[in-house]
Amino acid sequence: MVRWFQTFHRPATAEPVASPGVPEQDLGIPSRLTELRTSVERIGTTLEEDVTYAELTREAAAQTGGTAAVLRRGSEAGGGYAAVHGDPAVLPDIRWAMAAVRGAAHATGPGGGSAASLSSSDGARPVLVVPLVADGVRYGVLVCARDRTPFTRTEAEFLALLTERAASHIRHAREHERVKGIVGKLQRALLAEPGRPHPNLDVAIRYMPVGQSTLVGGDWCETVRLHFGRTLLVVGDVMGHGLEAAVDMTAYRSALRYIASADLPPHRVLRQLDDIASAEPERRPATCLIARLDPNRGQVTLASAGHLPPAVIDGEGRTSLLPVPVGPPLGTGLGGYEPATYKLSPAQTLLLFTDGLVEHRGEDIDHSLDRLAGVGFDSAVGVEDVLDTVLARLDAANAEDDVAVLAAQLHERSPLPGEAQG
User: For FRET with 242, which of 147, 154, 250, 367 sits at 20 to 30 Å CA-CA?
Assistant: First the structure.
């Protein structure tokens, strides 16, 4: 290998001057080593397989003065060269190239990584094929071709080093995609759909996790049917982001559904959730807001565990916040949750949300809530339109945290038999 380092170089613009005691053939090795290192480092700059192929062929073409391309594994079933860099007309016929690749593989074994120097089918052009092999797995073949000048052993060894680097990064890229796929499946499994409310209520929910590759995080919304036409609406926010927060979020949702089946008032539901969470030291704390809607009575009962207050949009599109006594977050074991009850008419829209909808880093939370209260809506709009408007006006697409938001409207209640109609 040292001998190869000594011979791989380009013509220098000036002759080096030998120092006493330094062999003349060793002069210039540091510069050639730097050139080699730089060339290798230009391959595998991302975890994108296609980018790595392009980086490999670009570097191979630049170093050999010819054309370089990749035959991916399975190309014999169809397709052609990939990541071509240089003049495609210089490359050999794809069928001849595949035959040459199979011959080289037979000579070196399925996991071999040696370069094979050949001549094209018409004998006019030299061709170099170098397998892309990492840990005994072949990912494809680098094919280089140029006019007239045969490839040297030094060039073959250099391209073998480049393909070894590329194959290693392709292996990492595929492993990254495999792990990302597993994480995606797990996130989709955790992304459970909320329950269905009673038909006397219109509900719309939006969830926007922060991060391009994230499907689920610690924010969540839930609806639970209760007796006598009532519905429990819930938003929660587990501390943290990503998969770890999503796991705890799922635990809170499961516990909520179990507790809600007992038809307890919202503040008692929070108390039991807090008891369960505080008994598990590994469980992350969470804020939570529960609203029990009773369309028959035209009222909503609220309870908060460290959560932001809900908003109400009236029939004229004006927004206001509903004060709710704030207890400690779930998981602290402190308890102390209190209810608050308000009248709610079908002309109004109840809006529950997590802090990601309104908060900006460095901004006082009161100012953040004021921005929400300043959002105006068209009168007589549905719950989906309400969410479209609030998400657009508050620029939720660029939020710094996960966003979960729920809008609910009561239906007009039909008079019961015997009730006076006015």
Answer: 367
